[in-house]
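Deliverable D4.2, example record:
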Amino acid sequence: MAWFALLVAGVLEVLWAYTMKQSHGFSNLKYSAVTLVAMAASFGLLAYAMRSLPLGTAYTIWTGIGAVGSFIVGVLVLGEALSAMRMTAAVLIVAGLVLMKISSS
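Output generated by the structure prediction step:
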């Protein structure tokens, strides 16, 4: 259950990062509200997952899902640049996440 909570927390991190961008510095009330709710839920689920997962593993997986997910949303939804260097960086982050998961088993 902790791994599922951590996965959802990571997805919510992507959501709040995207809605924070869309809030334009918290000037758009609708996106600002979604950002704050998603942040609270993401942190809450991360805290729940940390009850049974090691700190380093949980935090690394959470931030990695957020980083790679936000990168993907940026490219696919916001039209941000996709270069070989950025793609390599994302692949390296995913490789680190896989190694972190394997090492915590």
